[in-house]
Write a structure and sequence with these properties.
Length: about 240
Amino acid sequence: MKSRFIRVVIFFIGYLTFPAFAASLQMYPVTVNFCHGETARPVYIKNTGTEPIGTQMRLYLWQQKDRKDILTPARELIISPPVASIPPGRQQLVRIIAPAGATGAGQSFRLIVDELPGEQRKVTTSQVNFLLRYSVPVFFTCRAARVDISAIRASLETRGPTTRLIVRNNGAQPIKLSNVSLLTAGKNVVINRGLMGYALPGSEMAWPLPSGIRTGTSLSVTVNDNEINKIIPLTP
């Protein structure tokens, strides 16, 4: 029987701990931000396990169309090195490079890091092995850049039995939405604890609401990890 490998995707949100099988491969930072004038940013990948770990790094242009995430291979940025073998207890420095004249400004990217099958795992034919895939946002905006809350539009859309929360980002900064609750019938109804998702500049995204929730007046949400939740009125 051949050894089976299952790819486990980790979307970094900045403050979650990971399950035990993920502990041998760690990454930081969990979001990469290029400030104005910067041409390179570091990412560190650490092997806390007892065996060497092979990794492959790729960069994708990240767009949102028709309320879906679209990833295409990035030509604007360079990843160095694209492949690495990390010994036990060591860490690998990876650089995301924006060459002179690159058009990354105003765009968003995803760094995908794949754990590669190791030789010792290959000879074990009777078990299921988990291979990690990390998906890290890369933005050409400073982390401290202020978000214009007035540029965020939120509404509810009901089609058949499903009601969705629609969020449109009319601003110039990508927005990360977490800890979302809906004010409805005088009550605060929790929609999502932790990360719900991202809305890139000029994009619109949708998330289904729990069954039975079909109306509301405003949204309470953490935007870009701000300590204070923002209140966003729902538009018809």
